[in-house]
Design a protein that fits this description.
By secondary structure, the chain is α/β, with parallel strands linked by helices. It contains four helices and eight strands. Strands 1-2-3-4-5-6-7-8 form an eight-stranded parallel β-sheet. Helix 3 links the parallel strand 1 (38-39) and strand 2 (57-59). It is globular, with a radius of gyration of 19 Å. Residues 1-27 have low confidence and may be disordered.
Length: 210
Amino acid sequence: MLLCALVIFASETLGMAQFNVGSTSTMDSDSVWKSAPVFTNLDDALAAKAAGVPVLRLDLSRKKLRVVPAELAQFTELKALNLDRTKIDALPTDLRALQHLEHFSANGNRITDFPEVILTWKALRFLSLGDNLIDSIPLNIDVLNQLQTLNLWSNLIAFFPASLGDLPRLSSLDLTINDMTAEEQYQLKTWMSTSTELFLSAPCRCEFDD
């Protein structure tokens, strides 16, 4: 009964939002998906999808998944996905199906390599991978040309490509608690646009515990 009510509510809410977009010129696509229901249970999201309700926001944070569920690739209309503190260590390539994803967060996990699949999400605006074990940023990070916020705080990053400065819409870059010398921080600042707010810790060449 509860799931049925949730599906009905989601359908009505999204339908009203879509109706408003067609009738109100001031409402953009962002306000549509940001007002859509947030699904916090994968089974509920799958049931909603089966009922014809688009799942735009999915929050599976703190679920102790350890492995990203293969079913996530089914939500091709997804706009926002939260996998914070789920004990995952990688993202499967099947998630390249999420071509409409704009907001992705996977803070507080065990990810060691920057997930290559993220570079296929060309609509991405917000990316947060803080508190992981990532040691480098890919050279072609600038393919994410819609990216506005990039959070990579508390990782093991010791390589910072100049292509970070080629992200045309980037307004916030958080690299606090990473392994950077004063010279590297200075170089990074010369690459970045003055319109990008840059967050850095005191420079060091640090030894991290495994």
